[in-house]
Structures are given as structure tokens and as C-alpha cells.
User: Which sequence fits this backbone?
């Protein structure tokens, strides 16, 4: 089970989203039409099947708007839901629930979409060791929760930011003056606690990487399945392999069958469809 | 032409996205493999057709990473591009361009997606007065740029946050004790500079709204086209009409033909597909 | 009754004020001279009559300095007080009460002044439909609480910021090229959820506005009472009317008698006298 | 001449005020009605006589909204102006000038009011050594500029916050167990770089303070002029004297004549009238 | 006993340190290897003798990471500990304790080092009135807690920042045009609540300062002990004296014997050795 | 050569340090005694030998206080200096230079100390492959610049925060239920871009780690040199080795001779002595 995010990191994100949605002086509608003593019992329900993500953020949203709201979680982050399933219930002041509703749903709809899409990709790898992972193609400001949603869907982490791992792409190689130069300075400066990955587009480049040494992971980019198979065979476990580029859902089973270790999919975070959820009273 | 956003408001968003992507101590890859005197001339190119949005953010991203980069814009926000068109060019330190690339693309891919989808909806309204507008179903933290992308695509603004207009939905009506109560207290408290919109799901509710008075806009929610036509006819220009709920692209022409004033589409911001863009060197 | 402000929005304001007053390393006086186990029971009392505002901020100030303080409110925001009335009582550590005192009083003195002055203006409108409203002439940083104080005094809201409504003044008209140009582009871009107000200084301009259409509110600026009467008569309910400019308290009854809908008064927020309050032990 | 405030400290204040006034998505009016190529030459003029303050903030406001605006200062902070005098001129994009106008005026009107009122108090001390000073009764969030406005008006600084000096008031004395206990622990903990002031309400208390020693300044609170004269005579220069409480303008000459060193006036910051200024095009 | 720092000021410091150490997405190790229901009872123990400081920060660190942790303090800030003494105990989720451990120790090791070194200097002044104080040579960002650690060790406060006292050094004197010019403008502008200190390097300069008047404190900089003795004798209590420059521990007894009032030691904050502390389970 | 830190990350740190040192209303001394037209030419000089670090921060400090200052760097970060060497020169307003001086020196003294101490450790490894690295025992808030100072001194990076690598210590092993359990769940959850290190205190534990597999690095903690030699021999290059615990300078040559890959030294950041630098005019 994926453990929750630290509140120290997640709360500021939810707080900022609430401030954005409340606007500079608060919810004009509930303030105008709902008295402070009207209470509601509300259910946040799935209207489609999926793998839930964003519950932790939603719970924080309701609490930040009104600490007196009682929120209980029926389907936590990572759980599978069917249409009609209740994910969480909220009891308390109607005005508070309505003021927090949109932010809670905006987080959950998007993140549940990511977790659900990830789970679909993961399902295609069944029977193979390949694991699904994501990229840095996340929504500006939401990397924390989107990378977590990938985990909720059964995906595996990739580097989080430009700080924590080295990934040498074609443009870096060109600027460095070639694969050997790039890998050698990278290895020299990376230290012992940082992984180095390098992109190759052809088998010839792969040979060059293996001959140079120093890479922990090789990114097999935009290869067709036959070439991927060859590449994985050539690597033969010497380094970790990651397939990337044009990784559509209908191709994953075939890619996984090549024996590649990881399949990275930008679409998990940049193209997941929002999952339909609603608050019922 | 939509005017640019104030930099006072947009810059902090781009800055935060860069800090998120750089991570706590910067771009390990460029630092390790690219010398400070390698320079590049790069083009940010469209790989799909679309309506551009996010250029202002991208320009700020490159400038924040390195004020010495020279950025020039060929296709500004709101322009239509064909595959292969160059949107902007960047000249300067290769390391700087590569460190800012992902953030620039993350903004532009998503926002161009929204502008492009909006333009597709707008195209369907041709020959009718109906205007396409969006909702509060935006990505947490990105409302500023997503609402702007809708304008770039030819859409019309809706309320920005809970502060600036009153929109009385079914749950508000229930909590207020009915349509007349809700509209009367809303009118009393809204003052003279705030619009009031109220949701109706049936023609009977519409009658109640018209009888009570006080609404500027009526939201015709989840109605089939026949009912919409009846509702618009019944209103007869007395208030502004907005159709909402299940507004798929293939239905817009028919909905616009009902004579409705506005069609609001949550999908513009929550379900637009990212548009493929790339940085070429 | 005006509902309280969202704590998400108000708390940062109070927190910043406390940090400003505590200075970089805290209250040197209480730290030096008062032991941690000295307790007090204090009353925050009115020394003048008025309409209370700022209680919500004061309660937050005491709580932020010391969550163990017990604060109870006798006269909430919006209540009328006479000299000597106790607005709130605080029990707990003397050092905490004394450290928070000044900030609590600085908020309450100023905001009670605004609410009290507003109430005086509102009283002058008795028997007429005219409502008193404020402007953007608020103290930098305090708009949230000053606009709320106007509500506590019985006033009506105006636009909150430059974002939420369009108000076309003389300089805008000049820059736009005339009233018709200004109103037409405004109406085209405002969308359906934003009100448009336009300033007129003469009856001739008023005719132009009415002929053009597109305005929701007309600002009758700096007119004498006779002209105001004519203007209101000419409008005849076609749009909302707001009188502005030189709206002294002793003139309000006469202005209200013209039948104008709203009277906006910059002095409410920029020239209210602080109301004398004190903390008694 | 009072030197300008450090921009590192002042700019965030102006930036926050602009963000408050622009609202979450910017100036809807100028965006809708003014094209980007309309330029203006504007003058910020005094409509009343006074001592100017807030110019530094106003200049920053125009620059933050649009670095391309050309701003030149005719009457800097601290200068005396007559009605009609131009304080600063601004040339550039009309939309930028109009978007920054209100914030610039909100700072300048209030701060010029404080400087002008201070100058009036200072004028009453002519022929005496007494200097006018202010208190901590400043507007929450604006202490930096309000204390500076007092200097612009010829006033003298007081402690800035609770951190930088010790001021023992009646409630502190009570909590400490008496004047001797309060002064002794204060002197012991204050170190050598912090002044200690103590409030006395009677001549008997003054004797106690002088007998105990350890005070740098004695605050003669709410005394009538005769008692003040006696107190100042009794002190005979042994410590600095500050008169406080009910220090109306019409009483200052008489109070100054007692020979007191400082006269502190809360009204300078909490009750100054805004000075009328306007932007003319 | 030194009273605790206001949480309003200290908490943001601890929060920032935790966010720095957690990194952008939290503690990868505990998340990966420790289940949420493993609990620990941990003791934070001294491994060396010293005077404790940083306990208040450590307690906040554990609470911020996990409000459910039970923390109890055996040796509060300012207490002396021997090797093996338990300073505080923490009970609760193992993952939470381990995630907060490093930040708690980083604060406490450094601050206990400062308090311990201060206490060593204070011990050398025994039998003399001289008090040990610190300088502005603190770690960027940590002045609040480092100055407090000096108090925990028995030291006396100096000015906190450039805002709260005037300290005229040699370069200021040169820029001002001499001692008399510097002291006169300083006295004129400082007001009555700010102390003025001036540096002298020779007895001749001291004469000039005494002749000019206006200084509260004289900084006797880099003098040998014989000269210090002469200087203190010459001052004869007319102003406060502070010795500074090259104040090594082994010289303090001799310096204190000169009769100087204060001895300021930059090394307290810039060169204290970290004290060894550890968390035992 | 170590490349400079991104200004986006470093500038906020320097800005915060300046705001801390300026205090809430700026430098009272320079404001009082130095006129705005006094200019200086100042040199920041080394008074001891060392390896420079903190120059980038110092340059930013001078620029933030006054963009008109001209700063030129003679010895950049990473350069060796002898006593008397000029590191940078600053020309411009004397008041600006003096206001920024302390913050510039506080950064540089501490960071140059770290770089210099690191270089001393690095010198001891001469002739061996061992590289010197640091730990998370950094000053709260300064990790960015302290880790960079280690690089300036010739050290190698370690993990930056808890987010970017897994380091399983004894307490984690205990909580996980043993080495095999800890390593297996770590490997499963770490993904392919995160290194895993595990601490061993004995050769028996080392066997267990090697038998389990999954570790990239083994931390040989608190071993005597003989045991270290055995451990390194046993590992035989199968994983990276890091020696840690009690790594005093006088022991490094001997430790390096064991053939260990990395030697981590907490003292680099927690116990480096400040290097003496001064600003001369």
C-alpha cells in the first residue's frame, strides 16, 4: 500500500487551491443564500469505475474550510471503485461542504483519472516483469499528487525532479560532445547516490553506451518492438532498461513481452481523462 | 485580441513551476554534462495543428531561468498553427534552454490543448449567437492560465471564482428553502455589481425563477435539446440563458440552434487533450 | 446578518499583523517583566458608541498568540455598542493578552470606525430605497476587512477588485475613443457574469450611454442634487443608478430622496475616525 | 532629509497591494476597453496643501505594473505641496497607468495625511525642544510606511515593534508586582543596547521610578499640564521625558512649554485625514 | 529563566527546515520500509556535557511531522546536562520519529553548542560584573534561535538587527566625516528609544567620543588588556563599556577584571562546536 | 569546475538573510550617519588561507541591497586564496556596501570554512580512489549552499534530502523486521531511478546484505580500520562502499588506504571553522 503524502507538503497545495477557488473574499453564493445552521450529510460518489486518488487532498480541503466537518473515508487512495460507490462522506454545515466541494472534486477527478489510466497500463503488463512508470510531463504545480496518483494506480516512481537523477537525452549528448564525454563527466559528478540514465535511439548508440559504461539505466526511445527486443537482448541485464516513446495502451502487452524492465508513459499524467465523481446530498 | 495577463500575477505561477521541476538543488544533468559556453538555437515547434496558448508563460520560463536567453515569438497566444510551425525561438546557453524546456512545454501543451478544444466548440456555434464558456472545473492552481486559454480559443469568460458572482445550484436552493427564498436573499446581499445566476432542471423551475425575478442569468442544466428550445422560447430574452450539462462537441451545433445565449463546457478545462509540441535544436 | 469571513482568508492577515507588531524576536517587555504563571481576566470595552467590527480578527489574534487563552464574545461584529459595553473578554496568561492587545485594538478601532460611519450614512437613507456602498479607496492590504466592516455597518457591497466588474470611468472612455466604443467592446468581452458600470458627468453623456446600451449600472458622478434628480428620472429604472462624488453625510438624505439606487462613499473606508476601545484588567 | 526605505522591505508591501487591487485575474476594465498602444501623459497632483509621503511607494507601484512607464518625481517624500502642485508625472501605456493609479493614490493619500498632520503638530512645538513622535497605533500591515510618514512630517521615531525597546505600562507593572520589580528584571534582561521606558500616571509613581533607577525614559501618561510641568521639573534631566495621552493639536504648544522632551501622539497614525490627490491626464 | 520564543516566529523556521530535509516528496526510506503501525519509544540523549538549547524547536519539529507523537521534555532549554542524560522522549509512529529526527538534531546540536560555549565564557567572568554578549555574526536565517541560545547559556542580548540600535563603526565614522559629525546626526535621528554605540580603537578616539557626547555605549575594539583598563578607568561609568575583538576564552577572566561592562564574542555564534546528541530507541 | 547554483533557488535564501539582518525597518546606522552621495571602493579580502565558497551569494547580497553597486570577482567559488588575497571588490554607495557587508561575510565565512575543511579531507585521500562526501548534518535552511561548498572544496555529493535516495539505517532495519525485509520492500518501491544504501555495523550484517541483494551502496558504519579493510575486501566491488562514523582528519589517509569508495564526514558541514574574511575600504 502506498503511504499517504506528508501533510507538511500536501496541505499548502490544497490551501492554495481553496484560496484560488474561494477568490479574494469568499463564497458569495453560500454566504448570501445559506444560513449558518443548515447542515447536510453528503456523499462523494463515483459515477464511473476507476482507481481512486486524491482522497487525502479532498479530506484536507473539507477540513481546511471547516474543521468541524466530519469526514469519513470509505474507499481510500488506491482502492478500486464501481459506479455508485461512495468514496467518502461528509457531515456538517451545508455552506462549508458546498464551498469546499469544487476543489475536492477538481483534485479527485483528475487524480483518479491518472490512477485509473495507470492501472489500465499496468494490467497490460500482466505476466511480464515490466513496470509502468511516468515522466516529468506533469501539470505545473501538481507533480506531488500526480506522481502519487501513478503509484495509487500500481505504477512505479521515476525521478521526481531535475535534481534527483541524471537523465542524459539526445540534446545533452550533442552539447556534451558525444556519449562517452557525457557519461564520463556525469559519472564523475553524480556521486554514489544518484542514478544515471541515458537515452539511445538506435542499437549503434546502445553499443556505445555499453562500451563506455557508467550508465545505470538505458532509455530505449521511440523504438519499434522488434528493435526493442534486440536491444533488451543485447543489454542482457547489464543495465536496467526503460522503453519510452509512443507507448499507447494497445501496444503495452507487446512491449512488455520484449522483457524490458520499465515502460514510461507521459500520457499517464498529461492525457488521463478526468473520472466522473459527484457530491450527493 | 485577448490582452496578455499581468506579469505580477503570471510570473509567480511560472516561478513555482520552475522551482518544482528544478527540484531543491537544480538540474543535475545539465550541470554535470554541459559546459557554460555551449550555446544553442532552439525552436519550439507545433507537431499538431491547434490554437496556441501558454506562450506568455513559456517566455517567462526561459527568462526566469536565464535572463540572457533571447526569445522571439513567431505565433503569439491565440494564433492558429499547423504542424511544423515555429511558435517561438530561443537562442543562448544550451544548459539554460534545456533546464527550462520541460516547464515551458508543460504549460504550452496543456494550454494549447484547451485553446484548441475551445476553438473546436466555437466553430460549431457558427451562424448562431451562442458563445462557448467554461466552468470552475479547472486544474487546481492553474485557473488563471486555463481561463485565459479559453479566451485564446475564442471562448467567453464565466465567473472566475466563488467571490465574483452568485451561482445558485440545486443544493443551494434546497439549503435556502426554495427558489424564491434563495433569489430574494441573493438579490438583497449581492449589491449592484454582482450578477446572479440560478440553475433550473425543469421548465417548472424555470417558471418559478421567472415569477420570482432577481436572476440575471438562468442555467438550463442537463436538458435535452427539445426542452432547451422550449426554455429559451419561454425566457424570450428576459434573462440571459446558459445551457450546461453533457455538452459534447457533436451536440453543440444543435444546442446553439436553440437560440441559447451561452453554452458552458466543463470539458474545455478538465478534458482537453494535450497538444504535441517539441523543442528542436 | 453578515456571515463571518473565511478563516483561510482572514487568518493570514492577522498573522502578518502580529508578526509586524511582535517584531523579529518577540515582545521584549512581557518577556522581561512578566512571569509565565501570571494570569489575567481582561475585558475589551467600548469607550464610545458605535457599530462593532473587527471582532473576528481580534479573536484570531488572541488565539494565534496563545491558543490557551479563553476568549468569549459579548458583542459580535455588526452589533451596536454604547460606551462601557464589553465586546469581548479574555482569560489566561497576562503576557499573552498583553502581547496581542495592540494588534486586536488596531484592527477593531479602525474597523469599528468604518462600520460606525457606514451606519451613520445608512441612517440618512431611511425612507428611501437608496443603499450606501463603498469604493476601492481602502487601506492597502486591508480591503478584505474594510469591505466587511461596511457590511457590518449596513452598507452594500461594491466590486471587490479590478477583476470582478467593469467600471468605465472618464479616462477609460477617452482612451477607448468614446462611450459607444467603450461600451461595445466591454459588453463583448465581459461575458455574461460580469456587470458593467459606466461613469457619466452630464445628462448628455447619460443620453449617450442609454442610447448605446450594454451598461448595467450608470455612475452619476459629481452631480448636484437637481441634476441627479433629472438623471434618475431619465433613467427610469432602465439601469441601476449610483450617485458618487462629494457625498458628505449631511447631504445623503437629500441625495437618497432623488430616488437613486446606490450612493457610494469613499470616505467610509478612507476617512472613518478610529473608535476608542480599550482593554481593561 | 529622511532617507528612502530599503526597496527590499518596501517592494513586497506595494506588490501585495497591487495584487489585492488587481484581483485574481487582472484589471477587467482596461483589458476590455483600452488597446495596448494608447499612451498617456499623466500627472499626480495635490488638490490640498500638505507634506508629501508615499511617493516612493507610488513610484514602485507604477514600475511593478509596467517597467516601461516613465515616472519622474517633482516633489519627493517630505516636500511641502500647495493645491495644484504636481508631485509626479507618468508617461506610457494608458492601461498600465490606470491599473496602478488606485494603489498609488491609496498609499499617497493616507501617508501624505500622516505627514501633514505630523507637520502640524511639529509646528506647535516651535521654540521648545519637545519633539513629536508616534505610537504603535498604526494600521495593521503598514507600520513601515506610516512610521516613515511621521519622519517625513518632521516627527521623531519611537520604538518600531515590541522587539526593540521595553515599555513598561501599568498592566505590566501590576503583573510584575510593582515598579521596583519591573524595572529590576527589565534592566537585568534588556542588555546594554535596549532602552527601557516606564509609564507613570502620578507624581508618586514618578518618585518610585526615580528612586528605583534603571529607566531611560519615563512616560508621563494622561497628566494635565500643571502636573506635567511638575513632573518635568522633578525629573530635571535625569531621564528622558515623554508626554502622552489626550495630546490634541490645540494643546501641544502648552505641553511643549512644560519642557518635556517628547510628545507622543497616537492620532498621527490612527486618525490622520486622507489628503486629496488626483491623477490628471 | 529565559522565556520560550513566540511560536508565531519559531514555527516557520522549523517548518522550513523540515521541508528542506523532507525534500519535494517526502522521506523515501521510511515510506518504503516502515509500516504505519510500527511504534517506537525514543530518547533524545546527550552524549557530551553541555547547556541545552533547541528543545523548543525540536518539540515543534516532531509535532509538525506528526501531531500524534507524544513528546515530553526532561531537560528544557537552558538546563545543564551530563553525558547520557535524556533531554526529551518521543513516543509514537516509528516512521514519524525517524523522519523528524535529523532536523531536531540539527537544531539542537548547533544551538546546544552555542549555549554551552556561552556558558564557558560566562564562567570566566565570575566575580566581575562583566556580561558576555554576542554579535551579528550569526548563521543566515538562524539569528532568532542562535541569539536565544546565547541567552540559554547565560549571555546577555546585543542588538538584534540593523534596525533596533545604532552602532557606529570605523567605516561609518569615516563616511560621516568624523566622530562628532557621526554622533550628532545619530543622536538627532535616533529618537529617544534607540541606543547609540560607537567604536573606538584608541584612547584618543575615546576622548573624542566623551567630549562629543551622545553615545550610550562605547565599543572598545581590539585593545590589549592594559589599554582596556585605562579606557574603562577613563570612562568611569559615564557610558556603558563593551570590549570586543580577539576575545578568546582564555583571555576573558583578565578582560573581565578590567571592570568593563560587556564583552562581545563573535565566536559564540560563528565558531561554537556542535554538541553530540543522539536519538536512542 | 562546479557550476553556479540556479539564481531561482539561491536568491530567496540571500534575500531572506538580508531581511533578517536589516530588521523590520532597515539599517538605522547608515541611514542616520551616512549621506546618500558618499561612495566607497571596498575589497573583500581573505585573512586566512582557504578555498573560497559563498561568492555567488555575496554578489547577490550586494546586488539586492543596491543594484547600482559594481561588484567584480577576483577569486570565484572553488578558488584557493592566501591571506591578503582579494576575493571581490565592490564600488558604489558607502551606505549600501555597509548594509550588505555582514550578510555577505556571514555567508562567505561559513561556506569558505566548509570548502576549506573539505579540501583538507580531500588532500588526505591522495593516491587513493576514495572520495570525500558529506551528510544531512547541515545547518537548517542552508543545505543548498553548504552542500555546494563541499563541492567547491573538491568533495562529492551525497543524497540531498530524504526524497532522493533510500538510506536504510539500523533503526529502519529494526522497524522493518530485518535486513532482508527492508531491502526487498525498498527495492520494490524505489523504482529504477533511486539508489538504495544500507548501513552495516558488522561483517555479519554485511554478509546478510550481500546475500539479500538489492543494495547499491553499503554504509560501513563506525568500523575500525582493520574491519573496514576486511569489509571492502569482502565486497570486492559488488556494491559501492562508504565509510562513515568517527572520520577524523588524521584518520582519513588510513581509511582511504582500505580501498573504500567514499568517506562521509558529518563534520564538513556541522563543525567547519569559520574562515576569517574582512571588508577593507
Assistant:
Amino acid at each position: 500500500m502506498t503511504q499517504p503524502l506528508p501533510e507538511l507538503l500536501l496541505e499548502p497545495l490544497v490551501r492554495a487551491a481553496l484560496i484560488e477557488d474561494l477568490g479574494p473574499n469568499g463564497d458569495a453564493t453560500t454566504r448570501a443564500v445559506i444560513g449558518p445552521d443548515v447542515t447536510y450529510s453528503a456523499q462523494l460518489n463515483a459515477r464511473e469505475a476507476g482507481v481512486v486518488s486524491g482522497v487525502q487532498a479532498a479530506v484536507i480541503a473539507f477540513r481546511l474550510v471547516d474543521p468541524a466537518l466530519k469526514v469519513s473515508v470509505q474507499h481510500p487512495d488506491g482502492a478500486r471503485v464501481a459506479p455508485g460507490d461512495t468514496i467518502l462522506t461528509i457531515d456538517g454545515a451545508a455552506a462549508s461542504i458546498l464551498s469546499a466541494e469544487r476543489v475536492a472534486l477538481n483534485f479527485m477527478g483528475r487524480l483518479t483519472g491518472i490512477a485509473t489510466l495507470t492501472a489500465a497500463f499496468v494490467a497490460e503488463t500482466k505476466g511480464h516483469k515490466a513496470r509502468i512508470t511516468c515522466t516529468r510531463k506533469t501539470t505545473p504545480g501538481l507533480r506531488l499528487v500526480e506522481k502519487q496518483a501513478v503509484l495509487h494506480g500500481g505504477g512505479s516512481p521515476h525521478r521526481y525532479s531535475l535534481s534527483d537523477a541524471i537523465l542524459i537525452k539526445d540534446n545533452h549528448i550533442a552539447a556534451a560532445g558525444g556519449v562517452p564525454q557525457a557519461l564520463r563527466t556525469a559519472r564523475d559528478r553524480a556521486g554514489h547516490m544518484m542514478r544515471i540514465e541515458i537515452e539511445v535511439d538506435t542499437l549503434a548508440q546502445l553499443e556505445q553506451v555499453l562500451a563506455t559504461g557508467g550508465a545505470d539505466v538505458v532509455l530505449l526511445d521511440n523504438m519499434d518492438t522488434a528493435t526493442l527486443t534486440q536491444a533488451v537482448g543485447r543489454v542482457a541485464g547489464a543495465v536496467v532498461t526503460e522503453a519510452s516513446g509512443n507507448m499507447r495502451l494497445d501496444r503495452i502487452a507487446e512491449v512488455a513481452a520484449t522483457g524490458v524492465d520499465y515502460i514510461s508513459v507521459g500520457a499517464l499524467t498529461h492525457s488521463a481523462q478526468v473520472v466522473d465523481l459527484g457530491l450527493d446530498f
Observations:
- The mean pLDDT of chain F is 97.
- Chain F touches chain E through 68 residues (CB under 8 Å).
- DSSP finds eleven helices and twelve strands in chain F.
- Chain F has two domains: 7-116+273-280, 123-270.
